[in-house]
Amino acid sequence: MKKDGLPDYAALMVVGVDAYQLGVPEGRLFNCYLESYIPFYGFMDLFLRIDQILDALDHPQATFERRWLSGRDLDNMAAKPPVFLPKSSLVRYWEPGELKKILSARTRFYIRVLFRQNATWQGSVEWPEGRRRVNFRSALELGEMLLETLERMDKPGRWVARRDVNGERLLRGSRPAGE
Q: What is the structure's pLDDT at 40?
């Protein structure tokens, strides 16, 4: 249990990719504090929604204050995207084990954000179909890993090597030729 009262798994996001076309994933995002899933379209939408959930949970806490290119006042929250989880009424709807079984027939990733420092995330991502878990140092690196993995699949859930594999960059992992 963390000092903010939430368990470590509060920041576990289950991402189900239902479709992937022209570099754009489409799917559903689950968290144990969401009663239902949140749909997403594209990596930016996925990352913004994850960030909204983390902000609503205040877990892990961000170490920076959000800045706005438009120069808007932080007190003016009318333009802020909606928060899905009011902190005062947090209810855990799913146990972590149940959450991981929800999308058993689809391509899924388990993203665990451990830290939100220097205006980005650090954590781990797991791809159960590829039996691989990798740590990431930034949201950009996470996006690259997800993109690389999805690019190598001919349909959600089925991995196909289409070119040489760099095991460090791809969640699936692979041995270089000749080993």
A: 94
pLDDT digits (tens, 9 = 90+) for 96-145: 667 666 665 468 899 998 887 777 788 999 988 777 889 999 999 999 99
Which DSSP letter does residue 62 get? B
Using an 8 Å Cβ cutoff, are 47 and 1 in contact? no
Note whether 33 and 93 are within 8 A (CB): yes
Alpha-carbon distance values, 86 to 29, 38, 56, 165 (Å): 18, 15, 6, 43
What SS3 state is found at 50? helix
pLDDT digit string, tens, across residues 63-92: 566 555 566 555 544 444 454 555 555 677
Instruction: Tell me the domain boundaries of the chain.
Output: 8-159
Residue 153 near residue 109 (C-beta atoms within 8 A): no
Q: How far is CA 155 from CA 17, 21, 23, 125, 133, in A?
A: 10, 10, 13, 20, 21
Which residues make beta-bridge pairs with 15?
A: 29, 109
User: Six-digit token pair at 6?
Assistant: 């939430």
d(CA 6, CA 28): 23
Angle between helices 43-57 and 139-151 (to 10 degrees): 140
